[in-house]
Amino acid sequence: MSNVEHDPAEQTVCSVDAAVAAEPEVELLQPRDVPLGGPRAMRVRRALPNRGRRMVGAWCFADSYGPSDITGQAGMQVPPHPHIGLQTVSWLVEGEIWHQDSVGSRCLVRPGQLPLMTAGHGIAHSEQSPPEHSSNLYGAQLWVALPERSRRIAPAFEFHSSLPSHELRQGRVTVLAGDVDGAVSPATTHTPLVGASVAVDAGGRVTVPLEPDFEHAVLALSPGLTVADVAVPVGAMLYLGRGRDAVGLGAEVAGQAMLLGGEPFAEDLVMWWNFVGRSHEDIAEARATWEREHDSDLADRRFGPVHGYDGPALPAPALPNARLKAKGRYHR
């Protein structure tokens, strides 16, 4: 998925702060409303990056959307766009999406399946609701920042049609990345990380084991959810900090949430538009390359063409007039 804001926020440089005691026990991160693909397109709720906190482990971007009735509509229509220095994690609760990319991948993603795209040095992809699609579209899109040792690797795509899970008395935990109580995802990760989908029955409560050395957050996808006894609105994220060995989730009606966590990311990084780099120069070079290459017939491309997409690629927004400046990992 692309960050398609016309005027995206300036990059942030995120780093670990050793002053753990300065972190709140919990912090509610409210989302902002963003159009996906233009002012007439579907809208998403963006919880990360947030004004207050910009990362949870290596997770650096979190959008949620729906459930949206797209009967008689195009649904999700995101043209080819580039990425560097990150992985994309798509998760559907309802609906389906065509994924196509510049390494030749083409697959129809359905609920419970995991498409994991590693941008590395550079990749381009598109995401579309198919012409014959379900009436509802409902899910989340997440990014994971790659560490220095991995951020220039060759682009890749992997697809997992089934994932390990725990059936609970009043819900279910499906593991997208990492390990939850012995259920280990097959997805490739480059930093110590966990990601899981948590479903809670109506009126139910579930307890999810956590790794105490990780920081964690829970993204609410449905109304009526409580996390650690805190009410979390749809699209908001409750940051839980570090040192917990479990977290409880409750639901008034049948609910959906995403658990995100990992070791605090130990490197400074720069985020702007669809790029994760380490400097202004990283971002400027990637943008210039995309603008030169997209919709061209160049044989040797950093990002490559997305075969099968009928239409122009997404142009990059203009860089700010001022040099992109570093910001802290979270707002103080």
From TrEMBL:
SUPFAM superfamilies: RmlC-like cupins (SSF51182). One of its GO terms (molecular function) is metal ion binding. Keywords: Iron, Metal-binding. Binds 1 Fe cation per subunit. The keyword Transmembrane does not apply. The keyword Iron applies. InterPro entries: Pirin (IPR012093), Pirin_C_dom (IPR008778), Pirin_N_dom (IPR003829), RmlC-like_jellyroll (IPR014710), RmlC_Cupin_sf (IPR011051). Gene3D superfamilies: Jelly Rolls. Fe cation binds at H81, H83, H125, E127. Residues 198-292 form the Pirin C-terminal domain. Its cofactor is Fe cation. Residues 42-144 form the Pirin N-terminal domain. It comes from the Bacteria. Belongs to the pirin family. PANTHER family: PIRIN (PTHR13903:SF8), PIRIN-RELATED (PTHR13903). This is Pirin family protein. It comes from Saccharopolyspora gloriosae.
